[in-house]
Write a structure and sequence with these properties.
By secondary structure, the protein is an alpha+beta fold. It has a domain of 57 residues. The protein is built from one helix and four strands, in the order H-E-E-E-E. The longest helix is centred in the first third of the chain and has 10 residues. The termini are far apart. The mean pLDDT is 86.
Amino acid sequence: MSEVQLTLVDVPKVVDEKLPLQIQKMYHMFGINSEHKCATCKHLDKQLYHDYYYFKCLVYGVSLSASTDWRKKWVACGNHENK
């Protein structure tokens, strides 16, 4: 079975362009699951670094950069899986 390749024409437009780029990318890739929040997803990981906790989406990718920080309050993407 071959993978489906999306073109820019196929990618849905995000309703709120004020959202951070990382969650916009997830919406483009997987769509939006408005019934859930990222907080309830098994892919959300809580990481301790220098006495602070940071949340990261394991599907999006993890680095020490703030560009991969995640918010539990965000509406989930279509790849959401309950914990």
